[in-house]
Input
Amino acid sequence: MSDVKAEIKRLSEQLTAYQRSYYVEGRSQVSDTEYDRLFDRLLALEASHPDLRLSDSPTQRVGSDLDTSLAEREHTIPVLSLDKSYTAGELLDWIEKTEKKGQSEVGIVIEEKIDGISIVLYYEGGLLDRALTRGNGFVGNDVTENVKTIASIPLSIPTEASVAVRGEIYLPKDSFELLNATQEIPYANPRNLAAGTIRRNKSREVARIPLDIFVYEGFWEGEEQSHLAILSQLARWGFRLNKNFAYFHTDRRRAEEELAQAGLEGFGLSFLDLASYIEAETGKRSSLGYEIDGLVAKVNDLEARARLGYSGHHPRWAMAYKFESPQAQTVVLDIDVQVGRSGRITPVARLKPVALGGSTISNVTLHNQDYISMLELGVGDTVEISRRGDVIPAVERVLEKGEGSSIWHLPPRCPVCHTVVVKEGAHSFCPNTHCPAQVRGRLEFFAGKGGMDIEGFGPETIASLMELGALADIDDIYRIDYEAVLGGQPGFGERKIALIVEGVASSKGRPFSTVLTALGIPDLGKKGVQILIEAGLDSMEKILAVVDAHDTERLTAIKQIGQRSAETYITALSDPVMRRRIAALASLGLSMEAEAGEVTGDGRFTGQVWCVTGSFEHFNPRSKAMEEVERHGGRTTSTVTGNTTHLLAGSGGGSKRKKAEELGVTIIDEETFISLLNKPDKNLSNEQGELF
Ligand code: AMP
Ligand code: ZN
Output
């Protein structure tokens, strides 16, 4: 057998197996980068030796995300994947070649490649008729009802034409972090969580996950002659575009002019700026609020696109540049068990130190037993680790079993206090709240950088005080007579003790948001606290009132808070030990109430309940107006009820206005709303929910 023939056979078999485990079993045996590389290698070999292509070659299908439990519908536009390059150089070469082939000055748009779920929205007669996943490119799954829960997707558009819009549904990173903390099985990344969500059977569950969308292509029969013109029309129809893009032309001024004409925000640049733009975009990746896995370069001129046409699977007028996710191989030396401050037991792999994306990795979390069982991981195994999207490193898969290795299992007892562990969902917990590991964890968190940040109160001080029997709970920190307890102890000189006393005293003045964060309530980090306060729950009293009333709805009415988080907060804050701790801290003088402007957004709408109706010039789609209300502490609802304090009324929108008038709700027009937003501070509107 010739070398090429053998390689084609090997690649075909390997890729078929990978496709099968990914699409059928729902798990990935190989990183995306490696998969794409192998796939492209096979494509290239088949292209140069068409006679050697196997009739069942995995290149013959695009791979399918079809789920048979969801209805299948046909696509009426080509839903292709993109040709890919793996270095900025390759992308630049492609742009140069394509420019020449274009035979005229066509211009190139570079967009971010959003790492989400591909979706096609079909509109008929002005209404959203169906939303289909990519599927196999010809047939997709109908997820219309779920997609309708995404507020930034217009349900109707002001045109009778048949319109298809391609976009990417994604979950913002901060929402992902918030949600993932309480997931039974934590997801590896926002994309996986979004993918799972969009295929749920109950759209009500989908509505709780704050998915969003960026659209990037539109198809209809119209006058538009360029990609920019298409994007411009999509924006006017109320679709959400990603503003992070650039348009390149030989003449920079011309690029800027065309953008301005289209009313679009991106950068207008010259081809000379290409390399530095690509570099800058690559560097910006981790600071974005959503995940991207590359960039996409596209020909702007539609006529040039038509001339360039399509290859089997890809348009010839676009090229993706996929970022590498760094990966490495190493050996699992041991698996340890850590007990967190909530009692959660987390297995951690100790690795043979290995370099990965600029740092040396020797530990990596394994999350829980399910994750280990899924990997079929044991001590001694050789594994592939990666750092996807610049986040914490993860074990991706076992490459080779160690000699005699078998799947590792969590011990049945807490390694610190030997209490029998209990399983809740995917995680195991030590149920003993007095477990020294938990007590120490809570204290370290409270006094540490992410909490009250008490000077001189590091892990050693905590360990010594615990050993001396002086420190058993957080409030003890503010009661201990440090001179009496620590005086004469090794390692605690007069200066050190004075430092601790001073650190503790000055931490007493920390703002409420810091105190609340430092309590270490599961899922209630800095961001979560900010969200609560912005939504009007700005004092311990108000929060505990919601907890005591078991009012999960008050919490889930806040856009970023899901059912699970709401229940977690309520459970944690109902715990008598926690309540004693809070009462003690309050009596010791710690802040239990937020001050105005303590978190961003000044709460000028705090306590108010707004409903939004009609359409707006400056808030398109109108969810943008709702975001503004929420950012400043107000609540939003979709109907006018007795609780509604304000109706923001744009043009159109009759029935809600009538209802509001009947109920005596304050009605605000767009202009007044803008002036309210622009007022220098909230003292200009009073806190009773009335204006002026
Ligand atoms: P791939 O699935 O790796 O072949 O890459 C193609 C996919 O990238 C498309 O199907 C889209 O789902 C996704 N994508 C994300 N952002 C963009 C964008 N700005 N333009 C085109 N495709 C995009
Ligand atoms: Zn324990």
Notes: Residues 682-692 have pLDDT under 50 and may be disordered. The chain has 25 helices and 23 strands.
